[in-house]
């Protein structure tokens, strides 16, 4: 801790000292002198007077702009260079009082080269680090013709696809997707990655996005979300694109899908639909069970008038999932260790409808009004059969039986947000007011039937059976008001103030009924398992931030007070409980531009989390006969301290980069479950507040490019350490988890005819228990993946992927050692390669499995789930690609971008 304090003190002292040096900013824009078009990627060099050596250099932006910030010394001149153009050089007249030098438009003329024709290959860096963004040049990562966006994303350093299909960048989950900086129709990145063509993307940006509230109000709240932004090529912003595909295979496998997208300036229309039973996932991951999915989506976005922008859509989904699973759970207990071996067969159906709209109206140049309503409804059914056997470490069976469960539910949800924003004449002065409402209604019915043989503490065997129905109805409504105001102060300081009021009312009515032989129905109410519970929460928040903004650095310091008023009314038991708490939430943020494509960001904030209604409701829940839960109305809100540090750097000359991060959280009054066991192995759980839980995470990602070999290597190291507090039969237990992982990948492109990709990975995990050190665990997972794509004569593409997965240290029979082999052959046909005929083989070796380990404070569980095994498919896809945007033109040489070295080609 002392080392961390010293480290931070050194950073802040150094930055404070550097900020006292006088800084000069030079800005300008580089244009073609004949066409007056911007020249992106031009090199701007700052020279020293004494020896004309290079002090600093930058590349111009997409629009030709550049900014150079430096501490004034013996500076001589600015030199601007662009391949095929004359060099521009101008001296800098800087006095002791100069702070800014605006060079305006810098016109470069074309060199008089006597060639029949010249093609200039302009070097565009594959990775650029900006203030809150890591930007990838899409042209630096080769994809096949007609490839979807997903093929491009798989090649980006630091980006990973999880088994559930979600995306992470350097370990942080991507939560939203933007197109040209604006929200797209949906935040389902996995879905959009399948329908958007890679060829329309110019740049892929990973953005540390502010929360929606912070973006609207300008008031920092310390929340940072990782977002994916796609910058579309200029000549692809207007056109129609999409695809229609049909596929059939053995064992009645099918996949039919279509999408049509219209981009025309501000207007965007999207139609998406599909149905399949093959769990399509082109990222090499496996979904558990057998799925049948049908999805339709209609979206519309347009700037209807100069002042009104509208977007909205409708989505329909129907999902069926059927799977079997086996598991072995080892309970960590003070007096003895118990094992639960079970096999389960489950089936779930779900249908959902969602409507959403978004209106943005510009009242005038200083006032904006936004309105976002949404509505969804759906219903679902599910059923499962679970056979279980609980035994002691001596293999004595304490409890065995069968649980049959079924449920059906209907859910209706609605939400609306109204925001007013006012910008005043003084730059940076902003006022916002917003009102949010959300509501939810759920009606559900569940059935439970079980038969068990129990061995009690006297070793007597007895039969126990249950046949029950539970009816659950719940309603919730949330209303919030938020006011913010930003006031600019002197010397680039800003004062940010905020106030919000939230009120949340929830009501749940749970009734449990036993089967009655007399009435032949579920009519005997079980009072101990039934409850009518109301909860009202009122929260007041008020805060102040002070922010300092400089060209290369900005700081934010703030404090927020939160008063919570919680009232719970147990209608069934005629009891009322109240709780009042006051929390302080500090905030500290700092962002540093260290120059030469390097950035450092540090964030600290505190956050309060309210207990859920299920955690508060004091009623017994026996829907799982082996895990009996009870709520606790005396729970307090938890408070989490969170700190994050990230450093990103990329060397444009060597094409190497490093991205590293450290983060940690510590939670006060964390809500955990106090668990006890009876002699038959049944768990009884009740939530309580505890202190002492924390976690630490770190990662380092390195990327290297070998130009002569056309090879890129990425290496990623990540580690995590956590300490969690739990209770085992009334005694406090500390669980310490440590994991260390390494991933090394390589991409090799040979004459654009052969592409090879390979990776190896390994993750080591350790779990230690303070009360039961004999149950400490060590386990390892490791694997390798190799893909190849070769272009044969007649433009026939042949490809294959091999994925090896192995684990050690898991329960007997659950360690995996299998190889997943896929292959395909396809050819583009029809005019303009708009058709694709493809034959695919999945899991050729028939070894596909899904095994996972769950580590909990009270147990370790290994689970094996059914997955789709070997099948073959023949498919045809028709691609729609019609764009009428203009290509880059000018009177100078023709410019083409490349990730390689800059060169001149004659023709």
UniProtKB/TrEMBL annotation:
**InterPro entries noted in UniProt:** Beta-barrel_TonB_sf, CarboxyPept-like_regulatory, OMP_b-brl_3
GO CC annotation: what is one?
cell outer membrane
Superkingdom of source = Bacteria
Signal peptide positions are 1-19
Q: Which UniProt keywords apply?
A: Cell outer membrane, Membrane, Signal
A Pfam family it matches = OMP_b-brl_3
Localization, UniProt: Cell outer membrane
Membrane as UniProt keyword: yes
Gene3D superfamilies, per this entry? Answer: TonB-dependent receptor, beta-barrel domain
Does the record carry Membrane as a key word?
yes
**What residues does the Outer membrane protein beta-barrel domain cover?**
422-722
Region ranges (Disordered):
888-907
| UniProt protein name | Outer membrane protein beta-barrel domain-containing protein
């Amino acid at each position: 801790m002392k080392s961390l304090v010293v480290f931070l003190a050194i950073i802040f002292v150094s930055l404070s000292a550097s900020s006292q040096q006088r800084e000069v900013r030079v800005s300008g824009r580089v244009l073609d002198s004949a066409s007056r078009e911007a020249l992106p990627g031009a090199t701007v060099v700052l020279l020293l007077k004494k020896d004309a050596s290079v002090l600093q250099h930058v590349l111009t932006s997409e629009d030709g702009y550049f900014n150079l910030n430096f501490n004034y010394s013996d500076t001589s001149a600015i030199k601007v260079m662009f391949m095929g153009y004359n060099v521009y050089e101008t001296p800098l007249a800087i006095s002791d009082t100069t702070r800014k030098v605006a060079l305006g438009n810098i016109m470069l003329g074309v060199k008089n080269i006597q060639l029949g024709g010249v093609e200039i290959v302009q070097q565009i860096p594959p990775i650029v680090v900006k203030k809150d963004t890591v930007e990838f040049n899409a042209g630096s990562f080769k994809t096949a013709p007609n490839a979807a966006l997903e093929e491009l994303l798989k090649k980006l350093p630091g980006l990973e696809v999880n088994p559930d299909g979600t995306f992470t960048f350097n370990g942080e989950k991507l939560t939203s997707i933007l197109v040209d900086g604006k929200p797209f129709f949906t935040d389902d990145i996995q879905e959009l990655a399948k329908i958007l063509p890679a060829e329309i993307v110019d740049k892929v940006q990973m953005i540390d996005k502010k929360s929606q509230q912070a973006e609207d109000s300008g008031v920092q709240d310390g929340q940072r979300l990782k977002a994916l932004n796609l910058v579309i090529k200029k000549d692809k912003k207007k056109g129609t694109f999409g695809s229609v595909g049909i596929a059939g295979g053995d064992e009645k496998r099918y996949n039919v899908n279509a999408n049509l997208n219209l981009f025309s300036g501000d207007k965007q229309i999207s139609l998406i639909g599909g149905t399949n039973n093959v769990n399509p996932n082109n990222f090499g991951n496996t979904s558990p069970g057998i799925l049948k999915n049908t999805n339709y989506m209609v979206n519309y976005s347009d700037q209807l008038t100069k002042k009104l922008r509208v977007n909205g859509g409708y989505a329909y989904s129907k999902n069926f999932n059927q799977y079997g699973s086996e598991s072995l759970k080892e309970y960590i207990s003070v007096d003895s260790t118990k094992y639960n071996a079970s096999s389960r067969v489950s089936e779930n159906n779900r249908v959902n409808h969602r409507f959403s709209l978004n209106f943005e109206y510009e009242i005038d140049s200083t006032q904006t009004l936004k309105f976002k309503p949404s509505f969804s409804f759906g219903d679902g059914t599910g059923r499962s059969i679970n056979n279980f056997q609980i035994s002691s470490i001596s293999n004595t069976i304490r409890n065995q039986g069968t649980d049959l469960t079924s449920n059906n539910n209907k859910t209706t949800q609605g939400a609306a947000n109204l925001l007013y924003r006012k910008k005043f004449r003084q730059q940076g002065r902003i006022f916002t007011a917003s009102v949010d409402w959300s509501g939810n209604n759920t009606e559900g019915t569940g059935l439970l039937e079980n038969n068990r043989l129990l061995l009690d503490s006297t070793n007597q065997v007895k039969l126990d059976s249950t046949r029950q129905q539970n009816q659950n109805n719940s309603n919730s409504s949330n209303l919030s008001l938020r006011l913010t105001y930003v006031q600019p102060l002197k010397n680039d300081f800003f004062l940010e103030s905020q106030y919000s009021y939230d009120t949340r009312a929830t009501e749940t009515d749970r009734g449990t009924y036993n089967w009655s032989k007399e009435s032949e129905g579920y009519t005997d109410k079980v009072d101990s398992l039934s409850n009518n519970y109301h909860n009202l929460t009122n929260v007041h928040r008020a805060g102040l931030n002070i922010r300092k903004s400089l060209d290369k650095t900005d700081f934010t310091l703030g404090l927020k007070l939160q008063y919570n008023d919680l009232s719970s009314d147990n209608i069934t038991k005629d009891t009322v409980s109240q709780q009042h708490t006051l929390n302080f939430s500090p905030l500290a943020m700092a962002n540093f531009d260290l120059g030469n494509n390097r950035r450092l960001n540090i964030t600290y904030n505190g956050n309060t989390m309210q207990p859920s209604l299920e955690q508060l409701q004091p009623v017994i829940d026996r829907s799982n006969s082996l895990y009996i839960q009870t709520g606790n109305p005396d729970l307090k809100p938890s408070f989490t301290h969170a700190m994050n540090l990230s450093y990103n750097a990329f060397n444009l000359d060597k094409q190497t980069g490093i991205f590293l991060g450290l983060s940690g959280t510590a939670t006060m009054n964390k809500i955990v479950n106090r668990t006890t066991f009876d002699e038959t192995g049944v768990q009884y759980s009740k939530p309580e507040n505890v202190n002492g839980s924390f976690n630490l995470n770190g990662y380092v990602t390195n990327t290297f490019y070998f130009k002569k070999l056309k090879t890129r290597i990425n290496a990623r190291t990540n580690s995590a350490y956590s300490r969690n507090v739990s209770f085992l039969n009334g005694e406090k237990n500390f669980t310490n988890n440590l994991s260390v992982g390494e991933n090394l990948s390589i991409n090799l492109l040979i004459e654009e005819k052969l592409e090879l990709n390979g990776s190896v990975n390994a993750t080591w995990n350790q779990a230690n228990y303070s009360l039961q050190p004999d149950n400490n665990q060590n386990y390892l997972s490791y694997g390798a993946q190799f893909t190849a794509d070769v272009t044969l004569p007649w433009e026939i593409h042949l490809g294959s992927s091999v994925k090896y997965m192995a684990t050690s240290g898991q329960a007997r029979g659950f360690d995996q050692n299998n190889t997943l082999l896929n292959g395909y052959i396809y050819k583009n046909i029809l005019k303009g390669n708009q058709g694709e005929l493809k034959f695919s083989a999945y899991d050729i070796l028939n070894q596909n499995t899904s095994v996972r380990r769950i580590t909990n404070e009270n147990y370790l569980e290994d689970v094996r789930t059914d997955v789709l095994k070997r099948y073959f498919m023949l498919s045809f896809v028709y691609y729609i690609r019609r764009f009428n945007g203009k290509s880059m033109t000018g009177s100078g040489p023709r410019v083409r971008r490349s990730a390689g070295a800059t060169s001149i080609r004659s023709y």
